[in-house]
Amino acid sequence: MADIFKISENALFTTTKPNGSHQQDCVIAVHERLAVSNFSDHLTFQPGTEHTLYNLIDPSIEIKVVVEGTTPDKQIIHFKTCDDKEFPYFLRSAVPSGTKKPYNLLGIHQEKRIPQWSVGDILRRAVGEILVGSPAGSPGSAVIDKSGYLMGMIIKSENNEVLIASTVLIYGLLPTGDPDPDRFFFDEC
Fold first, then answer.
1. Taking the C-alpha atoms of 133, 137, 140 and 146 in order, what is their torsion angle to the nearest 10 degrees?
2. What is the pTM of this model?
3. Count of domains forming the chain
4. Alpha carbon of 18 to those of 12, 15, 80, 145, 166: distances in Å?
5. How far apart are CA 24 and CA 17, in angstroms?
6. Which range of residues forms the domain containing residue 12?
7. What is the pLDDT of residue 86?
């Protein structure tokens, strides 16, 4: 596996303790102080409530966050770090363009609590900044381009296809606006 993808694993967090037997819900650090996940994995989380995120690679890294906002209709929940704490690593973003592009899918292997990689293709644009990809994957998983940039996050999986919220949609839904417009990079592949 290329180093750029191995490094990407450091941006994976979960809301469950490392020694817990609960489902490991994937949370992706997308900025020094922001993370996103699939809302359906966190239905009891309300805006303004505090939680702890645990790094998947280094369980000693715990980050206190507050739910910055939710958009249930788009299945996205945004977390912001507390006390100006920063994520040690986050995924830089690309604005996905076109279809028939391959992607790498980064999620969590539930039984082993380790990163799980697979590959797929953007099949078509659904509505707005929602993309359709194949094959199926777990909601909350990161969709990463061949250069290691975040393209989006899986928000729904069914019939061997996934709905992907693009980075444009993810950042556009942030209640506080885009905190760092320089993080967008256009991949020319």
1. -60
2. 0.84
3. 2
4. 13, 9, 21, 28, 29
5. 9
6. 3-81
7. 94
- Which residue bears the tokens 């980064």? 106
| Sign of the CA dihedral with 41 first, then 131, 101, and 172 last | negative
Cβ-based neighbour number of residue 172 at 10 Å: 15
Find tokens 């912001």 and name the residue.
Answer: 80
Q: Is residue 44 part of a domain?
A: yes
DSSP string for residues in 76-128: EEEEEESTT---S----EE---SSS-EEEEEEEETTTTEEEEEEEEEEEE-ST
For 132-182, how does the pLDDT look when each residue is reduced to its tens digit (9 = 90+)?
888 777 888 999 988 888 989 998 888 888 888 888 888 776 654 444 444
> Residue 185 falls within a domain, yes or no?
no
- CA–CA separation, 70 vs 173, rounded Å? 9
Question: Nearest 5°: CA angle at 67, between 64 and 68?
Answer: 115
